[in-house]
Design goal:
Blueprint: E1 11-14, H1 18-27, H2 35-54, E2 60-63, E3 67-69, E4 75-77, H3 82-88, E5 99-103, E6 106-110, E7 129-131, H4 134-145
Length: about 150
Amino acid sequence: MKALSNPTLKKYVIDDSQYLLINEMFDRAKEVGYNKFTDIALNFRNLIHYINQKLPDDIIVYFLHHTEVDVNGKIKAKTIGKMLDEKLTVEGCFDIVLLTQIENDRHYFLTQNEGNSTVKSPEGMFDLKIDNDLKQVDENIRKYYEIGG
């Protein structure tokens, strides 16, 4: 949040954003009790809410996050615990969730849920499968929402 408190750019990328969770968990590994997991979950949730509520509308922050398959076979954002998975559902904090897929050596983004993931985007923003090109994604989002940048 400190890095984003005085933004100078129109887009930011938090690459491997799950490491914000994992690094804090390892930093606090020797602490006993459940409170550390609550703190870690709150810190991550507060970052997302800060971005969604405090940043100007023309600034977009991209979270690049690893995925995992849950017990029901659904692909979801990889987190560190039940509070984020069961109480919050991280993907629910975002209007757009894309999933990288590989098909015949082609990397692309899936833009709509096909029944086994948390992928979503507004209708008409993207085709079902688009090139894995964050610059093009950013251009489409800005065009769709009519925001500069």
